[in-house]
Structures are given as C-alpha cells and as structure tokens.
Amino acid sequence: MISMVKKNGKNLVDWFHDKWRTNLQFSTAVALVLMIVLQTLALGFDFDSPGDWFGTWIQNWINILRNNAGIGIVSLGMTFVILSGGIDLAAGSTVVAVGAFIMVLIDVGPQGILSNLGITGWPVYIIAILLGIMFGALLGAFNGLLITYGKLPPFIATLGTMKIYRSVTQHFMQGYNPEVPKPFLEIASLKIGGQLLMPIIYWLLLAALLYVISVKTTFGRQVTAVGSNEKATRLSGVNVNKIKRRVYMLMGVLVSVAAIVQVSRIGAMDYANAGSGYEMDAISSVIVGGTSMSGGKGTIIGTVLGALIIAVMNNLLNLLGVPPFLREAFKGVIVIGAVLLQKKESNA
Amino acid sequence: MNVELRNVSKSFGKIEAVKNVDFSQKGGEIHALLGENGAGKSTLMNILGGVLPPDQGEIYLDGKKVVFESPAESLDAGIAFIHQELNLINDLAVYENLFIGRELKRKNGLLDIEAMCQKTEEILNRMEIDLDPKTMVSDLDTSYKQIVEISRALLMNAAVIIMDEPTTSLTGTEIERVFEMMRVLRGQGVGIVFISHKLNEVIQICDRYTILRDGLMVAEGKISEVTTADLARLMVGHKVRTRALQRARDRGHAVLKVEGLMDDKDAFRDISFSVEAGEMLGFTGLLGDGRSELFQSIFGAGEDYSGQIYFEEKPIKIQNPTQALALGIGYLPRNRKENGIIKDMTTLENGTIVIWPQNAKFGFIDFDYQNRLFDTQVKNLNIKMGNKTDLITSLSGGNQQKIVLAKWLNIQPRLLILDNPTQGIDVGAKEEIYDIIHDLADQGVAIIVLFSEAQEVVRVCDRAIVMYHGELNGELVGESMDEHNIMLLATGASLNSMKENNRYD
Prior knowledge:
The structure holds two protein chains of two kinds.
Chain A: H1 2-22, H2 24-43, H3 50-83, H4 91-106, H5 113-116, H6 122-148, H7 154-172, H8 182-189, E1 191-192, E2 195-196, H9 198-216, H10 218-228, H11 230-235, H12 240-266, H13 278-288, H14 300-319, H15 324-347
Chain B: E1 3-12, E2 15-25, E3 30-34, H1 41-48, E4 56-61, E5 64-66, H2 71-76, E6 79-82, H3 94-99, H4 113-126, H5 142-155, E7 160-164, H6 172-187, E8 191-195, H7 199-205, E9 208-213, E10 216-222, H8 228-236, E11 254-263, E12 271-276, E13 280-285, H9 291-299, E14 305-311, E15 314-316, H10 321-327, E16 329-332, H11 336-340, H12 347-352, H13 367-380, H14 397-409, E17 415-419, H15 427-442, E18 446-450, H16 454-460, E19 463-468, E20 471-477, H17 483-490, E21 503-504
Parallel strand pairs in B: 3-8, 3-9, 6-7, 7-8, 13-18, 13-19, 16-17, 17-18, 20-21
Antiparallel strand pairs in B: 1-2, 1-4, 4-5, 9-10, 11-12, 11-14, 14-15, 19-20
Helix pairs in contact in B: 4-5, 5-6
C-alpha cells in the first residue's frame, strides 16, 4: 500500500517535471497559480464570514482585470507582432492618436466634427467607433509599409512613428478639450449586476477571437511561419510582406479598441501621458507569457497568462504595502526571471 | 598524438546513439569517420571534443586516460573540432579571428597587431598557404575560411583536428586547396578525423576508415584496401546501387522556355534554354556559376531580370514566389536549414504550408484536407517520422528534405526546380529522392535539378547544362554526358570535338 502511494507520488512528480520542461504555458500557469495563492493569503481569510471574504476576493479580481484590460488588449496584438519577428513601439502613441481622433468626432462642444455635420445620437457613436478603428488600422498599416516597402527594421520604424503619432496629436489637441457625451461612456461603464465588467468582456472576447485566428486560420499560422523562418516562408509562396502589413494593421485595430475603452472609461485623455508605457507593458506580458522575442514561438494563451501574472503581482505588491516607486522594479524582476527560466528550460 | 576511445556508449533517452564503440586515431593520419545520418558520428566526436560526456567508456591520449568536461578542456589537450558551420566573425580580419579572446598586447596595454600578424603568417606558412593576415574574413571563400579555422586550431597547438563535412559547400578547386593543406599537416604529424558523405573524396585523401551504423562500429581498416562501393555497402548495411537511373519516357511540350535572360547584378547573362514535360534537365557548374541565382530569379525570389520567360508556352514574368506557386511551379531551395524548413513548426505544417489557402473558408484552414494530402505524401515518399505534430527538427536530414519536397508535390506542380536536393543527406535517402523525382517526371512533370556534383548529374539527368561564370557553357546529352566533359565545361573550357551550337551528343 505504501509503495503504491510512493509510486503514484513519483509519477505525479515526473509528470509535473515533464510538463514544466516541455510546455511553456504550463510553467506560466503554475507561476500564475502561485501568484494567486500568495495574493489570496495577502488578502487575508476571514473565518467569521467566509461569504464576505469571498465577495471581497471577487471584487479584488474584477478590479485587477478591469484595470489591466487596456494593456491586456494591446498585448494580444503585440503577440502577433512579436510572433512575426517584429516589435511595435508605437502602440502607446497610437492609443493617444486614436483616442484624440474619436474624441474630436464625438465632441458635443462647438468644435465636434460629427455634431457640426448634424449627426446626433447613436449613429455618432457607431460612426466614431468605426472611423476610430479604421484610423488605428491606418496608423498600423503605415508602420507596416515602412517595414515592408521601406525595409526598415520594425524597432526603428515604430520608434519613429511613436514620436510622430504622439507629437502630432499633442500639437493638434493644444488647448482643445473635447466633451465626451455621456452615452459614449456606457461603452466601458455600462454596469452588469452593479459591476463595471465591460472592459473585461472586451478583453476576453478579443483574446478568444485572436486565439482562434492564431491557430485556425491561414493568416495566423503564416504569421508564426514568417517569424520562425522568413526566407523559407517566402520560398513557400507566402506573401510575407502582405502578412507583415496585416499584422501591424491588426495591432492598430486592437490598439484602437484599447483607446475606445480608455476614452469611454475616463471621458478625457492626457495627450502627453496617456498610453505611455503601454508598449513596454504589453511587450512584458508577451515575454512573460513565453513568446520568443525573435519570433516564431509563442501563444495567445501564454500572453493572457503573462498579462495576468503582471497584474496579480501589482495587486500583491499593493496589498503588501510595497512603496509605489519600487513596484516597477518587481515588474522588471518578473520579466528577467521569466526569460531566464525559459532559457534554462530550452537548454535542458 | 595518438587518441583512443575505448568501449564508448552514449544514450539520449531511449535512443542509444553510440554503443560500445572503439575508435583510434594516430598522429600523421587522415582518418575517415563514415556513416549515414544518425549513425552516431557526431555523438562520438562530440564525446571526443568534450561537448558530451560519455555514459560509459574512456578516452586515452598517448595511452594516458583523460576526462573532458568541456570543449575547452578537450582543446587544451590538443583536440580541435571544426564544425560544419564555421565559427568565424566575418567582420574581423584573419589575424583578429585567430587571436580573439587571447590577443597579444604590448606593455602599454594596446594590441600588438604586428606580432599577431607575424604569428598568423607563420601558421599559414606552415600550411603552405599564401594569405594576408589582414584580409577580412568576409572577403574569403569558404575554403579559406576553413583554413582560417584550422589555423586557429593550430595556434592552440592542436594535434588532432576533427573536420565535420568540410567540403560540402566547396567547389572543386577549393576542395583541392583544403586537401593540399590537409596533406601538409599530415606530413607534420597532425592527425585529422575527416567526416564526410563524399566517398570519392574519402578514397582520395584518407589513410584509414571507421564506419558506424546505428551507433555500432561495423568496420575499420585501410582505405587502400577498399572501394567507394565497399564503403557505401558497409555504411548502409546492404549493397548500394550505382547504376544510371535515366528512364525512357515520352516528352511533352516545352513547359518552361527561357530566352536571353540576364539579371541586374550580373550573376547570369545570355541564358536561353527550355525544358519539356517529362524531362529531367540537370544544371551544374562550380561555385559562382550563377545557376542558383538564375533559378531564384525565375521563381520570383531573386534579382530582377531582363529577357523573356515562357511558361506553358505563354510569355510571363514571375514577380514573386506566390505567383510561381499559383502557376504550378515548385522550388526546393538549397541549404535546407536556412531556406527549406521552418524550425519552430510541426512536420505537418512544414509539409502543407503551400496549400493552407486551398479549401480555406473565411481564412480558416481545412485541417481535414491538409491531413489527408499530407498523409498521402508521407506514404508515397516513404517518410519516416514520429508524430506529425512533432517539430520538423525531430526528423533526420533526409526525411526533412522529403517533407520540403512533399510540400511542393501537394500542388501537383507542372515544373519542379530542385537546387541541390541531396545536400547533406545520407546515401539511402539520396537514392530515394532520385527515385521520387524520376517518378514525377514519369507523370509528366518537367524537372530541373541543380547539382554541384557531376557524378549525380551523370547518373540522374536526361540532359545537362553546364554553367560557367553566369553563362551557359555547354549542353551535354547521351554518351557525351560524363564527369570529364562536365568538369571541362564547368572550368570554362569548351569541347572542340563534335561541337555544334555548344551541344554535344
């Protein structure tokens, strides 16, 4: 009997070890579970009223997810970009540019474009959202054109557009404070059961959609192929430049959704700072999620887990009362630690 | 220095890569280590080179037992491993590559460039090589790069040099240069382990041989007592056919016709030829003959060109591989690792990438369809593999190449261009690939195959075109298509007898 238990125990350890070594998502998920356990402990368990405790726990989670939905959505697009062997440093600036563009469209003040055209009510929001997404796609496509036709390294192309998009937005928005109409705020602030769940729903729906695109569609698989071996992929008759342009356009679309969520949550935008650091946070999520910076290896599920790890860690540091300035340092440690761990695994 | 490996074994998981192998190498001897891919050659040499620890067995240097825990320890003991992928920094000069990490310095801490150059020259002189130490490595051809690698080994007093397939990417004259250097070193008492698939070279340069098969040492002896056929038989374990493979078959219309092709970078010029349905047309020449560049351009993956191409009798200009694919042109590139396989993807994905868009609905891949076609190819091409969702890199070289080939067969090509399809794959797989392409020609596919070895052209092709410095230097058919004539044309000579429009029958 004892030997049986031992044997089973050993098998479990073996299974765990094997999974840990061979399946990157598994190790990322284990890290996340560990984080959640720590966070739950930090939250403290109230033995007198477990119902209340559970309520607090859930509420805490809703806050975490909501606060990270924007970066979560951007990191989904960033996964595609990095999978294809590229990088997008302009994501944060694109958030600002698209956000400002939408606000100008929907402004109910004297300068509002759509209201001046005599369009009012729900059509305004639909038109603004559609045009906003198209604008984001356009900005992304411009990155893609610089990278494919201009043959610029993605780092340089998007470093340039990062500066351009934000600076031009700031210039045109000087002294102009659009007034966001109340109904538009409902996009992110509509309450379900008294909770602000919309941003979380957008994040999870987009994650599911992009997961399907990445594993089931020609485009999704070609993105991975391009990142793994661009030359061989081109020689297999895949139009590599087209794939790359689409990747950056997709990134632009996702960034636009993040911008819409941001505008409708806050109702205003600080053009100098909004979205800044988004690209780096998104890249961090993607890396912690096990995607290789050189492309060709990585998954959407990993990125969602990676974004959650960083989010839960922020919350944990908050609960533990770690001084705010030190928190970024922990983020850095997590990113470096995750990559070191992945490196060790791939060497094993 | 005499090196001896006694009773060495090494397993990876359940696979026994090397089983109780004895191997001995004497100073002043060129020793061929032979075997098919996966026979255990690399594992054995990695053990000697300190890269892998053996599970069992000992290493003796001049009778003294040693244990190598790292490549550095093996190198210190005088054993240098020159890998197939050369380990040089292209943007540094020859002497800098030699002294990297142990630069000679003056008293004031600055580099003593003169001393390093002088020492480099001494070593080059020792190999009877005339080369300026200040030449940039990027300006050297592959044979000189090999020589620089070996110079580095000699700088560290290597007494035994392991050369892993050093001649695969070399041209005829370059091979001669490397062989000359090997002979000089042999004369100075240096021992060389020569790993190669090219048996005629082995016969030419080596003194002794050791043959591994499935991890076991199956034969060893003197080269003077064997023929290439003996070696091939010992390697595969049964007799290898050497007969000509040409088949009689009906020809169709000209599938591809090329007139006056010339590229923008002057890699090739004045190219005119045509290939018919069911024909096996060979292209060969030495490095720098422009044949790879020519077919890259035709496939839409190379430099832009002027001139006219007719495909299926219609004038056409192929802008990119996507268009070529749509027309039904397949292209198996040279250098499988760099251009052929997508290393992070599965065997199935590598074998179907060109047909993902086929049958796709709203961009969703039809996996049933992909699986069905893939399974058919695996069966037809006799591809040996584990799970089809394993990474392509888990397959042997020959099977990887078959997957790359299978990828193109899925589109039922009208024209198939193969650039060096048997590069770096073992004897058995080579023969299978010859058979596969002949079967395709039987089905009426026009086949253009680029070979770097004349011998392969003679055995496989119906007709051969030999290129020299970017031009067609001659065409050979029938009796006249032999290694001698190919070599003459490849080196720029013209065949005077029976000359008629540069075509020799």
